[in-house]
Amino acid sequence: MTLESTAGTLPPLLEGSEVEWQPARFTHEEASKRVFRAGHGRGVVVMHEIPGIYPAVVEFCERLVAAGFHVALPELFGETGREFSNGYAVEQMARACISREFHVMAARGSSPVTVWLRALCRSVHEEQGGPGVGAIGMCLTGNFALSLMVDPSVMAPVLSQPSLPFPLGAERRRGLHISDADLAVVQQRVRGEGRRVLGMRFTADFLCPAERFANLREKLGEGFEGIEIDSSRGNPDGIPGTAHSVVTKDLVDVAGHPTRAALERVLAFFADELND
After folding, report:
1. What is the DSSP letter of 142?
2. Which residues 6+ apart lie within 8 Å of 176 measured at CB?
3. Are 13 and 58 in contact (CB under 8 A)?
4. At how many degrees (to 10) do helices 180-193 and 210-220 cross?
5. Cα-flanking dihedrals φ and ψ of residue 265, to 5°?
6. Separation of alpha carbons 171 and 165, rounded Å
7. Cα 125 from Cα 191, distance rounded (Å)
């Protein structure tokens, strides 16, 4: 259960990056995936969004590296380096819906891939040291960061536009995509250890409804910090109602913009929670 560096060339998107990426492979319980690594410092596992590792995801990872973190970026689906398009996103969403690794409709149960991701977090923690690792999930992987918190190595979970389960019906709109038993562990860590959970969403995002954040506040109390960015019609920042990806595709990198403020909060959250 170790991250093994691999030979071979990087995808062009990473090869041309300003940071030095290293290809690796991580195997746990017969599941093996590529993991791209960069930077030095406390570890942060980045679970990319649908449709895959596209340029805005890599830019976010590079910001983490520049802030002094070591990034582990597992390839969960899609074709690394392929540009974002709506058609590509729909294609990968359809693949996820039939994959055994993702249970997209489960309101009170985690996707099986989270077992592999927890093992990856433990491995990154062992290598990088410190009190633990950070983890951020986005869109389809957003809720995974909460499930990963069951493992003691995960100290700083960030849920960016967590979109599972797909919000069809009242129960799924509130659903957290985690079992009752695992949620109890998370609650114990929040209440007993003082751990915190950070979440982000756009207010008009139908994939991540307000009821989900209300449930997180109900279950975690002051241990949950929710950032909800106004994307309603006529909002003062001109954010479109279709906005979804807070720190990647829909990030507006301008001082004072609410998405830039959310990005800065993520960096500060990791720094605060992963310090000795």
Report:
1. T
2. 107, 108, 143, 146, 162, 183, 212, 215, 216, 219
3. yes
4. 60
5. -70, -40
6. 9
7. 23
Amino acid at site 54: Y
Kindly report the length of the chain. 276
pLDDT in tens, 136-187: 999 999 999 999 999 999 999 999 999 999 999 999 999 999 999 999 999 9
Residue 195's CATH number:
3.40.50.1820
Lookup result for tokens 């990087």: 10
Q: What is the DSSP letter of 84?
A: P
CA distance 148 to 212: 18
Q: What angle do CA 276, 47, 185 make, to 5 degrees?
A: 60
What letter would DSSP give residue 48? P
Locate 167 and state its tokens: 């919000």
Domain that holds residue 7: 3-274
Q: Report how many domains make up the chain.
A: 1
Take residue 164 and report the two structure tokens written for it. 């599972």
CA distances from 98 to 91, 94, 103, 104 (A): 11, 7, 8, 9
**C-alpha to C-alpha distances, 19 to 28, 63, 141, 159, 179, nearest whole angstrom:** 28, 10, 24, 25, 38
Write the pLDDT tens digit of every residue in 94-133: 988 888 888 888 888 889 999 999 999 999 999 999 999 9
158 pairs with which residues across the strands?
Answer: 136, 198
